[in-house]
C-alpha cells in the first residue's frame, strides 16, 4: 500500500520559481488516496474530545464532511465573506498580498462547545488563526486543528502556538 505522501503531486516552480507546489487534487482523484487521507486525519484526533467539526472553505469541507459523518458530529462551515445566508460573525486576516475575510453563522457554535478545526493545509497560519478567533468569539473552545499537510517552513504553527495542531503530512520546505 502506498504512503499518503505518494499521492501528493509536487509541482516545481509554481506559482513562481523556487516554490514547490503540493497539489492535493491527486489525493482526491484516487479513491485509495482519499480514503487514506481521511483515515490518517481521523487517527490523529482519535484521543480528542470534541462536539463539532468546523471546516474552512472550501477544502476544509472536503476533509471535514467525511470526518463529521464517520464520527457522528455536526459540521460547521466557515466561508468566504458574503456566502452565508444568515447573520454572521466575520474575521479579516492578512494574506501574502492583501487581506481576506471569512465568516461563520452567529448560531453555528454554542458557547462552551469543543471544536475541532479541519483544513487541507496550514502554511503561514493566517486562515487558521482567523478560524480560531471566530470560534472563540462565539464562545467555543478550539481543542485542536487537524490538516492534511503542513508547510513547516512557512511557520504557521508559530502563529497558532498554544493550540494543538496535527498534520498527516509535514513538508519542511516552503
Q: How do you describe this structure in short?
A:
The chain has 174 residues and is of the alpha/beta class. The chain has helices spanning 25-28, 31-44, 59-71, 126-137, 156-159; strands at residues 9-12, 20-23, 52-56, 74-80, 88-95, 98-105, 114-122, 141-151, 165-171.
Number of helices: 5
The description of the largest β-sheet is: 7 strands, mixed
The strand order across the widest sheet is 5-6-4-3-7-8-9
Shape: globular
Counting DSSP E segments of at least 2 residues, the number of strands comes to: 9
Q: Which stretches are low in confidence, meaning pLDDT under 50 for 5 or more residues running?
A: none
Q: How much is the radius of gyration in Å?
A: 16 Å
The class by helix and strand makeup works out as alpha/beta
Percent helix? 25-40%
Q: Estimate the strand proportion.
A: 35-45%
H/E topology pattern: EEHHEHEEEEHEHE
How confident overall, as mean pLDDT? 95
Q: Give the N-to-C terminal Cα separation.
A: 28 Å
